[in-house]
Amino acid sequence: MPNQTFPGNFPAPGQPIDELALAEIKSAILVKLRLAVGKDAGMATRRDWYKAAALALRDRIVHPWLITEKQSYDEGRKRVRELRKYGAQVIKICATGGVFSRNTEPGQQQLSLEEMQAIVAEAHMQGLKVAAHAHGASGIRDAIRGQLNPRQMLTF
């Protein structure tokens, strides 16, 4: 790939530079400029560069987040299978922190709606019901939306 010139100070003078990460980001920006924006580096406007940079950095941030989110769902499903293996007849989750929970506030949501739905789907596939402790409006709302069977300890 030919050496491309980027507009403006990139990065700011005096800032430490991770050369490998910088090269990866520059390469990603050039790819987005060509494929997503549809411009050649020599013909691109400042707006084109901005759009390409925004798309490249968005992808760099969102991709690890999506991987982490999927791992969270997979862990919930795996835990349901483990509990079933050892004889559980009902899965009980803490949708929110409780009065005696450590490192959390009562009512602070512990599981997202999507995580609850993943747990419920796996439990139902295993023939199990899912109960929830939920204190606070958002946790109760998501426990209901997540179709948890017996909803226990619901307080506002």
Would you kindly provide a written description of the structure presented here, covering whatever features stand out?
This protein is 52% helix and 11% strand. The chain is mainly alpha-helical and 156 residues long. Strands 1-2-3 form a three-stranded parallel beta sheet, with helices on one face. Helix 2 packs parallel to helix 3. It is elongated, with a radius of gyration of 24 Å. The chain starts with 18 loop residues before the first helix and ends with a strand.
Key descriptive features of the protein:
4 helices, 156 residues, elongated, 52% helix, 3-stranded parallel β-sheet, mainly alpha
How many β-strand runs?
A: 3
Count of helix runs: 4
What class would the helix/strand composition place it in? mainly alpha
Q: What order do the strands of the largest sheet run in, or round the barrel if closed?
A: 1-2-3
* Estimated share of beta-strand residues: 5-15%
Rg value = 24 Å
